[in-house]
Amino acid sequence: MTGHRIDELLDAKRDGTLDSPSATELERELRQNPAARRRAEEIDSLSQILDAVADEPPAAIVSDVMEKISALPVRRPGARVIRWFPRSTSGGGMVMAKKVMFGVAAAAAIVLISVAITGFPHVNSSGTLGAIGAAKRAQAPQITASDVKTGDPAVQQFLQSDTFDRLMKDPATKKLLSDPGFRMALSSANIQSALASGDLQAALAKSDIQAALSSSELSAALANADIQAAFAKADFRAALAKADLQAAFAAADLKSAFAKSELEAAFAKDDIKAAFASAELQAAFARSDFQAALANSSFRAALADSNLAAALHSDALQSALSSSGFQSALSSSGFAAAFSRQ
Amino acid sequence: MYLSQDAEDAALVGRVLSGDMVAFELLVERYQRPLFNVAARMLGSREDAADATQNALVRIYENIRAFDQGRRFFSWSYRILVNECLNVLRARRVTVDAEDASLAPVAFEQVAAAERRAAVQRALMELTPELRAVIVLRHYGALSYEEISDALGGVPVKTVKSRLHTARQRLGRKLLGWQEES
User: Fold this and answer.
1) Alpha-carbon distance B141 to B156, whole Å?
2) CB pairs under 8 A between A and B
3) What is the pLDDT of residues A237-248, one digit of tens each?
4) pTM for this prediction
5) Chain-wide mean pLDDT for chain A?
6) Do A232 and B21 touch (CB under 8 A)?
7) CB atoms A46 and B65 under 8 Å
C-alpha cells in the first residue's frame, strides 16, 4: 500500500466517511504492515503539533464584521433591513430567570417611553393605527414633544408629567431615541402592533410606572447597546406583540415591582444589560409557556416582594445565579413551565 | 453531526436572505474561529489574519445570494477566505516573518510553547501557498478532499491528495524528523 493510500484511508476514518470495505482494508494494513502503523502514528503526531498552534480569534471580529455590514448600502430592492447592534459577550451569554424579569420590566419601560416620545403608533383622526414613514423619521436629528401624534388620553397625560419632562432632558434617553437604527427597529410591524395595545398605553398614566421611568439608572440602561440590540431581534419583537406579555405589563403587581428602588438600581447593572443580548433571553421571550408564566399572578406577586427584589440585587446571589447550570435550566422549557404552574 | 450542522447553516442562510442580520451574526460566530485559524496559518500574522477573516466574512455576506444552497455553506466560505488570503500573499510579495510575535503567547512559563508555535508557523510558511492551503484547510478547517478541491477553485481531488501528502511529508521532516520516503 502506498503512503498516499494509507493517508487517504486515515483521513476518511477521521472524517467518518470510511466505508466498510475500506475500513476492512485499513484494519488489515494496520495489523499486518508496520509501515502503515508508523504512518498512522506520524499523522497523529503531526495533527497534535498543528493543534497546538490554534488561536482564538480577536474578540472584536464579530462586532467589526457586523458593523461593516451594517454600513453597506442596501442592495436588494424592497429588502427589509434591520440595523445590527452589538451584542454583549460578557458573561458568556449569561441569563438568569430573575434577570429575565428585569429585562421584561425594562423592555416594557422602553416601549412605554417609545410610545410617548416617538409617537408609535400614530393614531389618525378616526382612531385607527396609522402608517409611519420610518425612513423619513429615522433621518430626524432630534425628537421633540411635537413628534407625538396620538389622541390617547393616557399618553397625553404622560406627556404632561414631570417624568416625561425629565426624560426629554436626559441626554442618554435623547441619544437613544434619536438613533436612526433604534427608530428603524421601532418601525417594524411587530413593535407597532405591540405599541397599539391599549394596556400599554394605559399603563403610561400610572404613577408607579412613571416613578420607575424617572430613575437615572433606567435612563442609563436605555442608552445601553445591549438593550437596543434586543429591539433588533425578531423573537423579541414578536414576543412584544403577544397578548399574554402585554397583559403581564399591565398587571398591577408587575407595575408595583417597577416602582421598587431595588429593581431600579438593578437596571444599572452590567450583567442585567448583558442579559438583553443573550440568545437565551430572546428564546425565552418567544416561548408561549414563558409568556404564560409572566401572566401568572403568583409569579408576579413573587417578583413584587421586597425581600426577593432585595435579594436579587445582591452581588452574591447574582453571581451564584450566573452559573452555567442555572443558565441551562433557564433555557429549558421545563423551567418556564414550573413557573406557570405556581 | 455534519448533516445537522448543514441544516442549521441552510436555515440561517435562508434567514439572512430574508434580511435577518442576526442570522448572519450567528453564522459569523459559528465560523469565525476556524476561518481565523486558516487565515492565521496561511498568512503567519494574527493582524493580517483578522483583517482577511473580516474581509472574507463581509464578502460572504455581500455574495450570499450567489451561494448555491445545494452546497455546504462552510466550504463555500472557505473558498472566499482562501482567495482573500492568496490576495494578501500576492500583495505582500515578501516572505512573512514566521516568528511573528503576535502569534505567540508572551508569558514566561510559555516560552517553550511559544518556540514550538513559532517553529510550526515557520514550517508552514516555508511551504508553497498551494501546499500550505491544502494542509491548513484540511487540518484547521476539517475539510474533506472534495471540499478542499472546491475551496481551491476546482483543483482536482487527485491533486489535493498529492499536495496534502507532500505538505505532511515536508512538515513532518521539518518538525518531527521524519525520514525521506523510499
Assistant:
1) 19
2) 121
3) 555 555 555 566
4) 0.49
5) 56
6) yes
7) no
